[in-house]
Design brief:
Largest sheet: 6 strands, mixed
Mean pLDDT: 80
Strand content: 5-15%
Structural class: alpha/beta
Shape: elongated
Low-confidence stretches: 1-27, 218-222
Number of strands: 11
Helix content: 40-55%
Distance between the termini: 95 Å
CATH class of the largest domain: Mainly Alpha
CATH architecture of the largest domain: Orthogonal Bundle
Radius of gyration: 37 Å
Order of helices and strands: EHEEHEHEHEHHEEHEEEHHHHHHHHHHH
CATH topology of the largest domain: Hypothetical protein af1432
CATH superfamily of the largest domain: Hypothetical protein af1432
Strand order of the largest sheet: 2-3-1-4-5-6
């Protein structure tokens, strides 16, 4: 555009807003408009005409580029630009057209609205340009009166806003689909609840402070009590801790009110989401920072929580099945031990020792829990040993000891046919927990790493508990004698690495012994 065309602008802007040298005024409450033209007058007149323009409560932020090189740099820098007013003829006759291809093809910017402006329509005929280039409007500079420029900008911003809404909703739905898939892989209720908090705060760009709470009837009087299942941000808690001991009173009141009303609530600074599982479990998720949540975001939250409630129901059922399996496994292990009249809480202690040693050895939490449960079956083969030998108060004869040793084979034979991972683990432990690191153990004389780590761990846990407990054939050893024995047997009976772990965590081992004392 040349100065000869300036009269075609009916300028009635009453004030010019202070801006930086390239026209930037900053802030997230503005629509970014990039003006690309090699004539300064075009930039000045555009700003003057649209100086008071506002759409959806947001003003315009003008960014000026006067050459192709400068335009490429600024367009790349301002990826969130809503509109580009682009001259066709600048450095070259087709500068604007090359920039259109750069924006759409090289940068992949499909949302920004491109309005091509030209003072020389013969260089870029409208029909050809519209057909061959991805632009959103084509204007000759001579026809751009103030009203037409206002109308053009309004139409472009409406289009950009709607495109961004669609794009954001698409991204939100993709996140919901992806995060739901991730969440459904989590088997632990607590891990699942933590995952829900993480995913929702990510999807909606919320404050990090969030809580997931359960409501249970108290033992006395039937009054409901609220417990925290998971938390993020500034809220830290201990297992099964009551919410009133963790959060500020106003947060507690919001969550309590949601449990009472049984409806989700959206406020300026927070929102609560209520859902109830088919089994009757009530849940409330509390998030801080909801002022930017529009109706679509609330709709997404509703969809997400509906999916989450189904997942919670499945996890509740899975946990119920798993807890039943755990009780059965422990009960079977204890049944085997009750034939030895003095073992008391031996199974529980060995299980806890096993998990502690497994975790300290570096075995993952889920696997360590499985080994803990499986360890309760370590002596299940004793059900096949006659009582007269099993409970003999005096020293066993070599023949009787051979019968006792067979309990490792019996246990393995009972368990190894199952395809369940936990039973397979129990079979390994039953078979190998009497093997010794130097190869002098039974039933197969395995040595070193040929003994499965599960067998090596339970061997140490079992002997530690046996030495520290009374038996029909012996009294419990003093602790100093037990420690001396383990140091002596490091590399012989026991894996040296496990002995070091045991000695370094002796206080924790003793705490378990005291907790489950006979």
């Amino acid at each position: 555009m040349t100065t000869n065309h300036a009269d075609d602008f009916l300028v009635f802007a009453e004030e010019d807003h202070a801006e930086s040298p390239n026209g930037e005024s900053g802030g997230n409450d503005l629509w970014k408009v990039i003006i690309v033209d090699d004539e300064i007058e075009v930039h000045q007149l555009t700003r003057m005409v649209l100086g008071d323009f506002a759409f959806d409560g947001k003003r315009l932020q003008f960014i000026s580029a006067y050459s192709e090189t400068e335009a490429r740099s600024l367009i790349e820098e301002h990826a969130d630009a809503a509109v580009i007013l682009l001259d066709v003829v600048m450095d070259e006759d087709d500068t604007g057209l090359k920039l259109v291809k750069y924006i759409r093809e090289d940068l992949g910017r499909t949302s920004v609205r491109i309005i091509l402006r030209t003072g020389q329509p013969g260089q870029a005929p409208e029909r050809v340009v519209i057909a061959n280039y991805d632009i959103n409007d084509y204007k000759e500079k001579t026809e751009l009166t103030s009203q037409k420029l206002f109308t053009t900008m309004m139409a472009a911003l409406r289009s950009f806003r709607d495109i961004m809404v669609i794009e954001n909703n698409k991204v939100g739905l993709e996140k919901i689909i992806n995060s739901s898939a991730d969440l459904f892989e989590l088997k632990s209720m607590r891990k699942f609840a933590s995952g829900v908090l993480t995913q929702l705060t990510s999807i909606l760009n919320l404050n990090k402070n969030a809580l997931h709470c359960n409501s249970f009837a108290a033992a006395k009087g039937g009054q409901e009590e609220i417990y925290i299942l998971a938390a993020s941000g500034d809220y830290s808690f201990k297992d099964n801790e009551k919410i009133e001991n963790v959060v500020p009173p106003h947060v507690y009141h919001c969550i309590e009110q949601t449990f009472r009303s049984k409806t989700s609530e959206f406020q300026d600074s927070y929102f609560t989401c209520y859902f109830r599982s088919k089994s009757g479990k009530e849940n409330v998720i509390y998030f801080e920072g909801s002022q930017d949540l529009n109706e679509w975001n609330r709709y997404l939250i509703g969809i997400y929580c509906a999916n989450v409630s189904i997942a919670f129901e499945n996890i509740y059922l899975n946990e119920e099945v798993e807890n039943t399996q755990k009780e059965i496994i422990f009960t079977l292990g204890e049944i085997a031990e009750t034939r030895s009249k003095e073992t008391g809480h031996h199974v529980k202690r060995v299980a806890e020792y096993t998990k502690l040693l497994a975790l300290k050895y570096g075995i993952p939490e889920d696997e360590a829990e499985m080994v803990k449960l499986a360890s309760s079956m370590h002596d299940v083969g004793k059900v096949a040993v006659p009582d007269a030998i099993l409970n003999k108060p005096g020293k066993l004869t070599p023949a009787e000891f051979d019968v006792i040793k067979n309990h490792a084979n019996y246990g393995y034979a009972m368990l190894n046919h199952s395809q369940r991972e936990i039973i397979q683990t129990a079979a390994i432990i039953a078979y190998q927990h009497h093997e010794k690191f130097d190869g002098t153990g039974y039933p197969n004389g395995l040595a070193g790493d040929d003994i499965h780590i599960y067998g090596r761990i339970v061997a140490l846990a079992d002997v530690f508990d046996a030495l520290g407990s009374d038996r029909v054939y012996k009294k419990a050893w003093p602790l100093d004698e037990i420690l001396a024995y383990f140091k002596e047997q490091s590399g012989r009976h026991f894996d040296p690495a496990l002995v070091n772990i045991f000695l370094n965590n002796l206080d924790s081992m003793l705490a378990i012994r005291d907790q489950y004392a006979d």
